[in-house]
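Input chain follows. Return structure tokens only.
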Amino acid sequence: MDNINRKIRNRTEIKNYIIRIDIEPEGNEYKNVGRKIAEKETGIERLVQYNIQEQKREDMITSRADRQIRFQQILD
């Protein structure tokens, strides 16, 4: 009888251990997915900010060129 109880306990312990092994990585995967999503969002925000700054630079260059053309037309 003791052997049967011991075998049942061992099986239960093994099943519980396997279940714990299966559950833990999934929880970590969800955390990693959340981090990846956050990293993507911050990456997109940085890209948008960079594009806005680049557009402002281009606008400044264009406005300088326009002013130079107007100034030359006034002088002529």
